[in-house]
Specification:
This protein is of the alpha/beta class. It is built from 13 helices and eleven strands. Bound molecules: zinc ion (ZN).
């Protein structure tokens, strides 16, 4: 590449004009992004500008508690929060007590969801697993408060043959799902959301088995690079899966804000999700997938879900789930 040719950014390798108008999703009521990370109030302006452009109205965000308070002041009519521990405290002495205090703080700003990060490398960092007494302590508190449990279990299948290949250290994928299964069994029907299609878009048969066994289990379809790759790879099977489970899947982007992220970056995530769920688009993604070689970048194959399924995915399911725990936000059916 010569110096005159600017390198296209990783969120727009095909030069999409993200400012081109796109009609709102055909949805009655607010479009709810159930899984996102608006990390700092200073990131909100380009975030909401892009969200408005792509018709995304409301957000259930994993924001640090200190920022949640600031965000709620200005954007409280469009946001609620998922209780998370402080990133810098995780695994340090006393972090469980700090997390419990934070759950109290989050609850007081209206959060009715709390999240556990049980990806293989997160369990190493935190020292917490499904069978840890500390986990049961936090879980009991969440259940006692009537909050929804949310977990990140698993990670992309291709990581289990690369960064997680050391099964001694990380455990096996099968073991993590077995432990998750046993833990859902233990909560007596308490609502539980499995992030990123249960962390296993590569195995819809396993997901179906879990959904059939646990009526309290919901899945979100968040993570842009992971979903564009794996959902597209099994497009027809996934379309059937979404239609069959249309009352149990929540729209989420896994959008993450950052100091250096602008309108186009945020736009790229919602652009891909909307193409993937709403349209029959078959073509390249603007977003570089770092997990596959440059000459094997994924082709998006849109599911073109029926209108009534999109209505549930974008609004009804999240509204119903949040109303079931009396979340102060999102529950209207405009
Ligand atoms: Zn996330």
């Amino acid at each position: 590449m010569d110096e005159q040719t600017p390198k296209l950014p990783e969120h727009n390798r095909i030069g999409v004009d993200f400012r081109r108008p796109m009609p709102r999703p055909k949805v009655r009521g607010a479009v709810i992004d159930w899984h996102c990370h608006l990390l700092n109030a200073s990131h909100a302006d380009p975030w909401f500008a892009a969200a408005d452009h792509y018709g995304i109205d409301r957000f259930v965000s994993m924001s640090p508690l200190e920022e949640a308070l600031r965000l709620q002041n200005r954007w409280g009519d469009r946001m609620s929060f998922i209780a998370i521990p402080a990133w810098r405290e995780i695994g340090k002495p006393g972090w469980i007590d700090d997390w419990l205090r934070r759950i109290d703080g989050f609850y007081n700003v209206g959060a009715r969801v709390a999240k556990f990060h049980f990806a293989p490398q997160s369990m190493i960092r935190s020292g917490m697993k499904f069978d840890s007494p500390d986990f049961r302590r936090v879980l009991s508190e969440i259940i006692a408060r009537g909050m929804i449990i949310m977990t990140h279990v698993g990670d992309p299948e291709i990581w289990y043959t690369s960064k997680y290949a050391d099964a001694e250290k990380f455990g096996t994928r099968a073991l993590h799902y077995q432990q998750w299964w046993e833990t859902i069994e233990s909560v007596n029907g308490h609502p539980w959301v499995g992030a990123h299609l249960g962390g296993n878009p590569e195995d819809p048969a396993l997901l179906q088995k879990m959904l059939d066994h646990f009526p309290n289990l919901w899945l979100d379809c968040s993570a842009t690079k992971w979903m564009q790759r794996e959902v597209s790879l099994r497009r027809d099977q996934m379309r059937d899966f979404f239609i069959h489970n249309q009352d149990r899947i929540l729209f989420g982007s896994d959008q993450v804000s950052g100091d250096d992220r602008d309108f186009d970056f945020y736009a790229s995530r919602w652009w891909v999700h909307r193409k993937l769920w709403e349209t029959a688009y078959v073509g390249p993604s603007p977003i570089v997938d770092p997990d596959v070689p440059a000459d094997q970048q994924p082709v998006i194959r849109g599911l073109c879900l029926p209108d009534e399924v999109l209505q549930k995915l974008y609004h009804d399911n999240a509204a119903r789930l949040l109303a079931s725990v009396k979340s102060p936000c999102h529950s209207e059916r405009a």
